[in-house]
Amino acid sequence: MRREPTWDEQRAFLAVFDTGSLSAAARSLSLSQPTVRVRIEAMEAALQAVLFTRSSNGLVPTPRARAMAVPARAMA
What range does the domain containing 63 cover? Predict the structure, then answer.
């Protein structure tokens, strides 16, 4: 079942989007890396979409993530 992402999930999403890594996002939010990972996974499950792919340079936003960044940033 689809649901709207929570604000905590969206904050984690924006931090990963901006930093390109779970660890850097966790540091910027004063959270643990596993907490950020769980929030990203929960958001992906809620949206039924992949938001980031792994690369040698870190996490790369998918087209869906890039489209979501603008409205999420407006909410921030």
Answer: 7-75
Whether residue 34 is contained in a domain is answered as yes
Q: What is the CATH number of the domain that holds 59?
A: 1.10.10.10
Each residue of 36-51: pLDDT tens digit?
999 999 999 999 999 9
Q: What's the average model confidence in pLDDT over 52-58?
A: 92
Q: Are 12 and 41 in contact (CB under 8 A)?
A: no
Report the distance separating Cα 1 and Cα 70, nearest Å: 24
Q: How far apart are CA 74 and CA 56, in angstroms?
A: 30
Residue 46: partners with Cβ closer than 8 Å, 6 or more residues away: 2, 3, 4, 5, 9
